[in-house]
Amino acid sequence: METKLQTENEQASIEVLETHSEQEEKDFLKELDDDFDPTVADSKGQQQELETEAAAAIVFVGMMTIEQFMKTLAHPKFKFDPDQAETVANKVAPLLVKYGTNPPPWLAKYMEEIMAVAAIGMLGLSSYMQVKQLKTEDITAAKEKAKQAANDHNAEAAA
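User: That's the sequence. What structure does it adopt?
Assistant: C-alpha cells below.
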C-alpha cells in the first residue's frame, strides 16, 4: 500500500512539473532571447580586454620604477629584458583586474605609515648612493692628480 501511495505521489509530482502549456514555453524562450544581447556581451568582452590592458600598463610602469631603483642600487647599466617585462606585465594584469589595485582592508589602514617609511627609505637610499658616487669621484680625482704629479715628476727628472 505504501508503494502504491508513493507511486501515486511520484505521478502527481510529474504531472505538476509538466502542467505548463506550449504557450508558456514559447513565452519563456522569448524572454531568454530578449535578455541576450550579443552587443552587450561583446562590449563586456571589450571592457574586460581594456581593463586588462590598462592593468598591464600599470604593472609595466611599476616595473620601470623597479628597474630605475635597481640602476641606482646595483648598477647603472641594469636593465630588464623587454620580452620578460612584457610577459610579467601580461601575467600580473589579470590579477589587478580580478582583485583591484586597492590594498586589502587590513593593510589599507596602515597606508600612510607604509608610504612614509617608503619615502624615508628612498631618501636614505638615494642619499647613500649619492655619497658613494661622490666618494668614487673623489678617489678618481685623487688618482688622476697622483698620476699627473707622477708624470710631472718623471718629466722633471728626465729634464
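The mean pLDDT is 79.
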